[in-house]
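We treat protein structure as text, and this decision shapes the records that our systems exchange. This encoding replaces a full spatial description with a residue-level series of whole-number codes. Below, we set out a record of this kind in full and without editing:
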Amino acid sequence: MNVAKRLFRLAPAIRSTVSPNFVALRCLSTPPVTSVPSQIQDNVLSTIELDKLYKRVELEMRGIDPAVLLSYSWFCVAAASHLGIEVTKNWALRKAEKERHTLLRCVHIYKKHKVQYEIRTYFRFIHLQRLTGSTCDTYLEYIQRNLPEGCALKVTKIECQKIPDHITPPIAE
């Protein structure tokens, strides 16, 4: 496959780095561009950045209202399915995390008269697998913009990376 066809299939950001006199589009009446000057080819290949690959993206949602949290998790799963993202796990903890605070009604006297306050935090988790960096950024921006009141979102990304050059496979004897 020649270089012109490979450049045409690459992202628009890479096509914009090519000089303006280079035409990567093909009209119906003219033959396709078959040769690219070597200077342009070297410039394009040196500026190519590969997209990141994520093995798994974990979403942790916290909220004070379980119904709102459930609705938001449905929204996140529906948005993932529209973008073609594979959702592997979607679950919630059985019990809420409770934080209790005991205070005196009157600071000075009446030690017997205390008030107890409780804060419940509900959790939901979603695991997404095999994402590219651009798809992940688009998806996360969309769901973060639609985050409801009283909810928090924590994102953990597990990125696939190339094995470093100093690590070599074992030699079989």
